[in-house]
Design a protein that fits this description.
lyase; elongated; two-stranded antiparallel sheet; Fumarase C, Chain B, domain 1; single chain; 491 residues
Length: 491
């Protein structure tokens, strides 16, 4: 077989001769691969595999092959060419490290890939190489491949997000009656329920997931030719009396991408929209991880992560059980804004009819967001499905707040009884006993001492100070949030 992709002889023919021989020979796969050694938030996950260099290479090959099928279906090339090219459209047949190194020559990986693809096809089926990449340009292939890679990765991200929604919905219902203390600006504030906390987690994840679903459904094909005019395709299509826009729409359908209104070479909103949707999902995940990290501190102890052998241990302190799932989710959420800003900056710097430099910086930023979201949501699904709520600790921490946790209610109910005809006098008197209670005196006794028994009986004071009687619309809010995602609960 005359195919040369991935062989030393092929590399010698296609790499710039100006490169030092030692450098050319040292670029092996193991040395250049990114396995995520410093990125435990996504390393080893399904998203990592779906966004690998091999996965992107396969997406580029898929775009090239499907385009040949479109052309064949339209009668613009011989009907047997796609099948003749198909065996060469397997990423495993290429030296990825070599392609990556050679991409420096033209500024993108499509150019060296085409050289190797054509070389392979000439070896297998010499007459089929000519139509490859007909009327297309590098940006068409790479942008469409990135959208295709994103679509494939979003499937697993959204599946994990729905697992999270299901777990949080169950958690919210199960703990709807678990009275807890709410915390604002790090301090105890009012009574709440753990169920409402879980429901609010669900509300954030649910909104972000719905937005990401909409984004996934609208990921567009990019197909404009060398300068976005579809000129080469128009010339070819006219010969067969076919519409270039119809051919592009056929390709979009075959790839499972949306058919855009027009090519989007320098309109980078499809990329920024995808990046923002991923960042929002990571922000919602980060909120949950932040709360779990706080609540799992030993001195609070309200929740604990699911345990698994070998996870959460310390290299020096064997007694520790670190909440590593939350740590890694939080790290992903913290990293996301930087990559999102990079996409926005690149979009704002897009110039002419194909961006120079700003287009190139998008690729890694978008891939990192996909990886971070994929890794974080896989871990969040495991976290929420196995989260343990320690109701005894929840009750203990609520008790620490004492009756002052309902001081807002007391102020509203009692202050008007103490005005003595002077507006604001009652509020001042209640504030005084709150201050004395903070200094160590019993609030219930202080309250009894300033409110006439005829105005408020002992039993009424007891009920007034019961946190369970001041939960507002907690149950209704839980119900509304959980019911807002009815289709997801059983997904």
């Amino acid at each position: 077989m005359a195919a040369c992709a991935g062989t030393s002889s092929c590399r010698a023919k296609t790499r710039p001769s100006s490169w030092p021989t030692r450098e050319r020979n040292s670029l092996g796969s193991a040395e250049t691969a990114d396995y995520g050694l410093l990125s435990p938030a996504w390393a080893g996950t399904r998203a990592a595999a779906l966004t690998s260099d091999e996965a992107l290479l396969q997406a580029m090959l898929d775009v090239e092959l499907e385009w040949l099928r479109v052309l064949a279906s339209a009668g613009l090339i011989n009907s047997g060419i796609p099948d003749a090219v198909a065996p060469a459209c397997q990423a495993s047949r290429y030296d990825i490290a070599d392609l990556a190194a050679r991409a420096q020559g033209g500024g993108n990986p499509v150019i060296p890939l085409l050289a190797d693809l054509r070389a392979l096809v000439r070896g297998d089926a010499p007459g089929a190489a000519g139509p490859i990449h007909k009327a297309a340009t590098s940006q068409d292939i790479l942008d469409s491949a990135l959208m295709l890679m994103a679509a494939r990765t979003l499937e697993t991200i959204l599946a994990d997000a729905r697992r999270v929604e299901t777990a949080l919905g169950a958690l919210a219902r199960r703990h709807a009656g678990t009275v807890s203390v709410a915390r604002t600006l790090t301090q105890h504030s009012l009574p709440s329920t753990f169920g409402l906390k879980a429901a609010q987690w669900l509300h954030g994840i649910g909104q972000a997931t719905a937005a990401l679903e909409n984004t996934a459904a609208s990921l567009p094909l990019q197909w404009g030719g060398a300068s976005g005019t579809m000129a080469a395709l128009t010339t070819a299509a006219d010969a067969a009396d076919r519409s270039p826009l119809a051919l592009a729409a056929d390709l979009a359908g075959r790839l499972g991408l949306a058919d855009p209104v027009a090519p989007w070479q320098t309109n980078r909103l499809p990329v920024t929209r995808l990046g923002a949707s991923l960042a929002d999902l990571l922000a919602a995940a980060g909120k949950i991880s932040n709360d779990v990290l706080l609540l799992s501190r030993p001195e609070i102890g309200e929740v604990s992560e699911p345990r698994e052998a070998g996870r959460g241990g310390s290299s020096a302190m064997p007694q520790k059980q670190n909440p590593v799932l939350s740590v890694l989710i939080r790290s992903a959420a913290l990293a996301a804004p930087g990559y999102t800003a990079m996409l926005q900056a690149a979009a704002g710097a897009a110039d002419d009819d194909r961006p120079g430099g700003s287009w190139h910086v998008e690729w890694q930023a978008l891939r990192q967001l996909l990886r971070l979201a994929g890794g974080a949501l896989a871990k969040l699904a495991e976290l929420t499905e196995g989260l343990t709520v320690h109701t005894d600790a929840v009750a203990r921490n609520l008790e620490l707040a004492g009756p002052l946790v309902v001081s807002e209610k007391v102020m509203a109910r009692v202050a008007p009884l103490l005005d003595d005809g002077v507006p604001g006098q009652g509020k001042k008197r209640v504030q005084e006993i709150v201050a004395r209670s903070l200094a160590g005196e019993d609030f219930a006794e202080l309250l009894r001492g300033i409110v006439p028994a005829g105005e408020l009986a002992d039993q009424e004071i007891t009920e007034l100070l019961d946190p369970a009687n001041y939960l507002g619309q907690s149950d209704a809010l839980i119900s509304r949030i959980v019911s807002a995602y009815p289709g997801r609960m059983n997904a």
